[in-house]
Design a protein that fits this description.
It is built from 5 helices and 2 strands, in the order H-H-H-E-H-H-E. The longest helix has 28 residues. Helix 2 runs antiparallel to helix 3, helix 3 crosses helix 4 and helix 4 runs antiparallel to helix 5. It has 167 residues and is mainly alpha-helical. The chain has a two-stranded antiparallel ribbon. Helix content is 71%, strand content 4%.
């Protein structure tokens, strides 16, 4: 939201406020993988998406550069945690996100339209939900196909305690 309101200078403070508030409420979240991945991906978005987008828009269309920058930022931020917990890195995730993000955005919009349309006329809602389901299934199929490509995943050896310092 801060990025859209062009208050980028406050973004780190907002992130710290959100993390601090959650940790005050539940300190054990610090050891929770979902907390770590969410905040590291968000930090990666904040730190990297702008500079990456500026470089990419020199030779890519603006919308493609923006989508790629967001994907790179989030993945780079969460990379140490993904490597630590799962002992693997997905090379397919970058192209999968590039294709899946616009499709999933459409699924969400269709779902909203279906919910609104269905409140007035149930058959319209069901029809739109069916279209959303088809698009969602297409997205899952695409991601599964990319994940099956040769070298889609790099498996890492177990980390020692010193290497875990990245965590």
């Amino acid at each position: 939201g801060a990025l859209y309101l062009e208050r980028e200078g406050d973004v780190w403070g907002y992130l710290a406020l959100a993390a601090g508030g959650l940790l005050l409420y539940e300190p054990a979240l610090l050891a929770d993988i979902s907390f770590q991945l969410s905040f590291s991906a968000t930090a990666g978005l904040i730190a990297l998406s702008g500079p990456v987008r500026k470089r990419l828009k020199n030779f890519l269309p603006e919308n493609v550069a923006g989508l790629l920058a967001v994907t790179v930022g989030a993945q780079a931020g969460s990379l140490p945690f993904l490597a630590w917990y799962f002992k693997s890195l997905s090379l397919a995730s970058l192209p999968a996100n590039l294709f899946a993000a616009p499709l999933l955005e459409s699924v969400l919009l269709l779902g909203l339209c279906a919910a609104l349309g269905g409140t007035f006329y149930l058959a319209v809602g069901k029809l739109i939900f069916a279209a959303a389901a088809l698009l969602l299934n297409l997205t899952v199929l695409l991601v599964e196909l990319l994940a099956q490509l040769p070298c889609a995943t790099i498996y890492l050896p177990p980390f020692g305690l010193m290497a875990g310092g990245l965590k």
